[in-house]
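Q: Structure tokens for this one, please.
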Amino acid sequence: MSSQPPTSKPHTPGNDNQPAQHPGSHSHSAQGQSLEAALQQAGFYPRLVADVVDDALDGRDCVAHLVHLETHFDRAEVRRHITVLVLTEDMLVITHVDDQQLDDAGEQIVAQISTESVPVAQIRSVVLSYMYAQPQDYKATDPVREVSLSIAWSGGQRLEMGPASCGDPQCEADHGYSGTIAQEDILLRISAEADGLQAVQDAKLFARALRAVNTGSTAAASHTGQVLQPRPRMGVFGNRLSRGHQR
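A: Here is the predicted structure, written as tokens:
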């Protein structure tokens, strides 16, 4: 998700660098790169992901996008998966792709793909959390170290629990458990150290565009050139797709 153009790489599974052009994928001057370039930069089956995203868009134009590639280390294995968020004037299209190796030699690989299309009128919450280093020395020019984008639309909740304490470091009594409940259907964390400063900026711009379209704000005009009218609220989905992109 860097602002630099994609460079040539040797061909490996999930690293197909042939350009893919699609009618629903347009450049955005406000963001660091176009959707096509972002998929190529990620290098995770870009042609396959681009075709699936284009099919899910069903002819709609892209208002803003966010491409997030994550790498996890599971003992001796390296696992990668990609999440692509594409915002249109009336839909949030979410595509998630994992791959799985079926043999020890790595010759048999399958890709597991899920797509979900959420009407923006059903989005209930857009939360953008910031992390700054050394806040006591903060200056207006300091970059954001990390952002977390949380979007909720179905009423799903995440519960985090941990042992409760009374504040006394010498106390050994059992105080039960305490926890927090967060409303979210999808959570993405974008780090400047891992993904680059432009990736963090793109995440902020995507969240701004999503809020604008969701509320019918005139701020969406900076992305679409149009003033969007507020939409009536509708019921929420009863079920969600199972995705593996939440940490």
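A few notes: Residues 1-13, 17-29, 217-247 have pLDDT under 50 and may be disordered. The chain has five helices and nine strands.
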